[in-house]
Amino acid sequence: MGNIFDRLAQGPGAMQQGDYNDWNEMVGTAPPKKFGRVASNAIQQVPPQQYQRHIQPGVDGTDPLGSLNPGDRTDLAQSLISTLTGGGTSPQQIQSNAGVQNLDPRAMSPQDLANLLQYTHKNDPQALGKVATQFQDKPDILHALLGNKALLLLAAGLGAKYLADQSAKKKQQQSKPQGRV
Amino acid sequence: MYNLLLVARGRALLRLTAIVALTCIVLLSVACGTSTAQNQSAPPDLVAPQQYGGGYSGGNASADTQAGAAFARWVLDQDPQRQFITDAIVRNESSLGVKVQPNVTKADLQRLLVALTQGMARTFPGKPLTVIAFYQSGDKLAQANFDPGTNQVSVQFAQ
Fold first, then answer.
1. Residue A10 and residue B122: Cβ atoms within 8 Å?
2. Please, what sign has the CA dihedral across residues A91, A93, A98, A101?
3. Distance CA A104, CA A134 (A)
4. Which residue of chain B is at minimal alpha-carbon distance from A146?
5. Which one of A8, A78, A126, B49 has the largest count of C-beta atoms within 10 Å of its C-beta?
6. Which residues pair with B142 in a beta bridge?
7. CB B62 within 8 A of CB B69
8. What is each CA distance from B27 to B14, B23, B35, B97, B125, in whole angstroms?
């Protein structure tokens, strides 16, 4: 992942140590409500077909959910199921509508989780924003959950705000009286 | 005898006219065909700044969609020293134009175009993609095409 060619070929979701630092400084510390709103908005700008290509194991040679460590995948599944059931949908309905064989977060396969995420993306994309909020400081999980395009939009949405804040702070500092002894 | 000469000259003139007319028709057909092919394969404007984004980090990163602009900025972020790329423009989330430094080698340009195309395919999946490298003057230097059916990238250099 060292040179520019490798970084460009991997796309925006592949991060290095410096990228994690930047992410946590710029995105990880954003207010959760705003983060959730921007994440919901970002994921809704990804067409279902593109999301399907991102999330389905093996499509385009990638497996974002299978690449997560099992603990992170369990956390993601747990958070997603809690968010959906918290919205009033019963586990039986989720299982039947999403075509998921197993709804136990610890035993869900990457394929089952992919099916559940596609179902949520189509029917309740705002729920994905809520789930994303719980992994605000974990770009690897966010990348698996959202994909490159939504991740870029999320960072841009929050980054623009961050830069605006920085700019406003600078202006405030400049407008303060100077030269006091 | 004089009449015979006149008839022969008339026939030659007729033949010459026919040849000229035929040549004109052939040339016109070729010109029209070339023009159509160029129009069909002509990429959108990938040099002029677009609606979203703009000046960024000493270059230009813009696009006609928010996601495209974010991708253009990300591209420039990968080359903070501006060793290869100075500007990035995205159109329709399917075409990327980059202005490259004049001293980039042909081998590096080829690697750069392939890498950019692969990164773009991971961001905007499932569609044909075009990545074009331009000189600083805006003249085309090389083009890469991505076929989502085969997952292959092909690169052609301008003549």
1. yes
2. positive
3. 19
4. B123
5. A8
6. B133, B157
7. yes
8. 20, 6, 12, 33, 41
Question: Is B122 in Cβ contact with A148 (below 8 Å)?
Answer: yes
- Size of the A and B interface in Cβ pairs below 8 Å: 74
Residue A174 pLDDT class (50, 70, 90 cuts): low
* Lowest mean pLDDT segment, chosen from A46-55, B12-21, B83-92, B106-115: B12-21
Mean pLDDT of chain A: 86
Find the CB nearest A153 among B66, B118, B125: B66
Q: Please, are residues B90 and B96 in contact by the beta-carbon 8 Å criterion?
A: yes
DSSP H helices, B42-105, are 66-77
Q: Which residues of B touch A (CB under 8 A)?
A: 66-67, 69-71, 73-75, 78-79, 83-84, 111-112, 114-116, 118-126, 151
C-alpha–C-alpha distance, residues A129 and A127, integer Å = 5
Query: Residue A90 is encoded by which pair of tokens?
Result: 């019963």
Paired tokens of B75: 């591209």
DSSP A147: -
**B18 versus B26: which is more confidently predicted?**
B18
d(CA B7, CA B20): 20
The tokens of B10 are what? 């008339």
Write the CB contacts of A82 (distance below 8 Å, at least 6 apart in sequence). none
> Hey, are the CB atoms on A12 and B151 less than 8 Å from each other?
no
Stretch among A52-61, A128-137, A169-178, B44-53 having the lowest mean pLDDT: A169-178
ipTM of this complex > 0.85? no
Q: Tens digit of pLDDT for each residue in A162-172?
A: 454 544 455 55
CA–CA min distance A95, chain B (Å): 28
- B38-65: average pLDDT: 80
